[in-house]
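One thing: could you explain this record?
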Amino acid sequence: MSLQVREQTLDIWRSLIDFSYRDGSWSWEDRQGSNSISDAEQLLCILYPATNIPVLRIDDPDETAPDVLWALHGLGNDLDALRVFTDVLLEYMERHRLPDGAPDFSAGSYLGSCEIDRTAITPEQLRLEVVDSYSMSITLCLSVLGYVQKLGTKTTSRRTAEKLGRLKDLTSRRLTGAMEGMLSSFSVHVFDIGSEPGDNLCAMVNQTNDSNDRVVGERLARSLKEIRSSLRSEIALTRGRSSVVEALENDRKLLECGWSWGPVQSSSLERDGNGSSVSCFAEDLPYLYFTGVALDGIEDLFSPRTQVLGLLDDHQQRMSSALQLRWRLCMNYWQRVATFGTGRWPIEDLPWRATDGVESDHFTLLVTSMMVQKLHVEKAGTSQAVRLGKVLQELAGRGLITRRPVAGDSAIGLHEPGTRVVLRGGAALGPELTWTITSFSTTLLKRTIQTASLVREAQDRDPLVTLGNEIWSHLLGRRLEERGGRGLWDDPRGVFDLKGRKWEAPSWYHTQRACECLVSAAASYTASSPVSAQLIRLANEFLAEAEHIFEQERLFGSWGGASGTTAPGTVAPVQAISATLDRARDLRNTRPGTAVTLLQGVLKELEVLARPRSRSLTEDAL
């Protein structure tokens, strides 16, 4: 895909620093106002690519590329830029703490309300913690800890070393709090087959038009038996969840699992061993959006980078293991449901209907996203990836990314104003709270990139590559054009005919997710490319022919005699061709196209060598 990762990322950095760093101080401005999530997203626009794309690393001035340093030039020269950025990271950790010193994960300005007047939201509601903040904090803290670890080995200044030590302590504490919050937000919803949620789930998975949804429900319940058993064992260790454990013991009930929007009502959350407790108001129901957000953050906990650098302490390791188990159970559940039965998968029947009866293409994307993520982490499932790729293609059309919108098209609402979900339980402190999901395009691009990296055959991969380029072109059209936030995101009016003012201030929510897409693209470039079985067969056939002709020429002594030697001081052709054949043999299963190209050169050289002998044999025959 032609995303121009390096150039685009550095352009984003320059634009972000130009907007955020003014007169020697950092501005946390966001179009929706500063909060613990948007501030983390702002920092991750720089730190996430810098810690996940090796060629863009910034934690070692001696190894940082000149163009990367120049992108940070707005912060200062070389070491000065890193000192300023370190101060900004420390400011974030200090900024988002409660009076008792515990980390603050409140959603603040990201929360919406069903009321017309947003000011109806109470101060207590603005302080509610949400899974989005936990997830972003996990990703940010892991990035910061790796940054501190490397930069600390290069620091000779005592003052800087003290700052890095303070930053490490606050970051580790915040990471612990985020992981605790994530564990308290895990939700298992158990319900009867004949209930409203049961009817909705059965109708979604019944792709064979079975006349009895109860029969479908019973088959689904049996298929979830192993997941139910594992959930029961895990939930039994959690205080306050005895009713859920009891419900899971009934094998004839259905279930769904994932993450609620915040710590669920039946959980208890004490932070950091200092006696402070967190209010748990979220209804014990999984949300597709927050489940996807949680899975992204948890994946970073068991990434190779986290393991190699040893970023987690013993307590965090134990929590990471518990979260990884929930990650796996959740992934297995949604894969089982989304691909249930024979023939057409439920996920291929757009749009996805949630258990509360609400349908949306955004929900289809969220479920598909989880399936792609599972396949991408496990590096498996080529045939499944092909089918999911077709779902992504259809979503791009239905989402008006690859299809021209008509006047008043309701699908524009996926992008602006977005898909609104009610945060059940939040009304205990004021009006009904809502959360608006507007990441349709960036989520679609990220999963398209990952799906394309899993598909081996060119005829299946090429449409996904084309789709990825089209989505990226769509996103480029949505960048801000105003002077302050130029080059950042997001203004959907750049691609849709929407009335109203253009956005001037950037949204770190959208810009950070665009950066995630660039990181995914970079990972696909550096990973081993998918290999076509057909191309491997072709490479083996070329190799067999080349080796056969090579041995013929060695037998007939085409290199100046039976010994195949040449004049002193020169490299014998037999040695050069033999080395090329060895190289092609090594590459035939991993880079068969390159192997074929090498073998074509060998065959051409062998033909030139064999031609005089073939002409001589013809003359002798005459």
